[in-house]
Amino acid sequence: MTAPNDMTQTPATKSKKKIHLLPLLILAGGVMAFFVLGGADYLSFETLRDNRQDILAWTADHYLLAVLGFVLAYHVAVMFSLPGAVWLSLTGGFLFGTVEATAYIVVGATAGAVGIFLLARYALYDFFHARVGKALVKMEKGFQEDALSYMLVLRLVPIFPFWLVNLVPALLGVKLSTYTIGTFVGIIPGAFVYASVGSGLGAVFDEGRTPDLGVIFSPEVIAPIIGLALLAMVPVLYKKMKQRGKA
After folding, report:
1. pLDDT digits (tens, 9 = 90+) for 180-238
2. Residues 166-188 pLDDT 10s
3. CA neighbours within 13 Å on the CB side: how many for 68?
């Protein structure tokens, strides 16, 4: 006789518990190609400093192509979780100026984050839920109810690595539209700060210094960002207070 558990396990149900390997192989291949081809060697302030006149001249002569190349590079870096996103942000500020670079960073980073979100959901969602099961249901429901607020907080305050914040919402069933809006809006302040630092790289290079990457954690910068994060949590806190009042 067939065991009861086996009777409920249809082929379709069993297939849902599998990991879809192709997207993961593509990601792994992209990361390997980046390091094998020496991509990390180009992500240095020395390279930018030594070639800045040529890079600035080429950008001025081929502005549209430079913008498209920058957005694509940022998209790839985020989607494949490659190192160098901060370096790209500073370079963007150096090449395009604070405001323009902020816009290009946000577009490229959001596109890359959406890409890895979709791949993670397709490749890992069913397997993850099959393994975790009921233990995740309460957490998933709570996150989904106030997903936009949580997404904004996670994007505004750099507590967790960017790649981790890309993956977790995909595994918790967050809507793509909510994830995209939260990512787009939430990364604007940080992008603006790094782009503004990058816009001053010319003076930093002339003085023989390196940029202070800890500037985003200085009180005058991090305090307003935390304030925005707290503001994003107001709907969640209000809802919880309202529920307690009814109890």
Report:
1. 999 999 999 999 999 998 888 888 777 777 776 666 667 766 777 778 777 777 777 76
2. 888 988 889 999 999 999 999 99
3. 4
Q: Which two three-digit tokens encode residue 4? A: 């009861």
For 87, residues 6+ apart whose C-beta sits below 8 A from its C-beta are 43, 44, 45
| Environment class of 140 (CB within 10 Å of its CB; exposed 0-12, middle 13-18, buried 19+) | middle
**Structural domain boundaries in the chain:** 15-246
> Between the CA of residue 182 and those of 114, 148, 195, what are the distances in Å?
11, 6, 20
User: Which residue is it, tokens 């023989």?
Assistant: 208
Cα–Cα distance measured from residue 85 to residue 235, given in angstroms and rounded to the nearest whole number: 31
Distance CA 213, CA 104 (A): 20
Nearest alpha-carbon partner for 82 in 166, 153, 19, 150:
166
Of 124, 117, 112, nearest to 24 by C-alpha is 124
Which stretches within the chain are classed as H helix? Answer: 4-8, 11-16, 21-36, 39-42, 45-50, 52-61, 63-79, 85-96, 98-132, 137-145, 147-156, 162-171, 176-186, 188-199, 201-206, 219-232, 234-246
Give the tokens for residue 220: 């005058």
Spatial separation of the C-alpha atoms in residues 226 and 229, rounded to whole Å: 5
**pTM score of the predicted model:** 0.79
Contacts of 119 (CB under 8 A, 6+ apart): 23, 24, 26, 27, 79
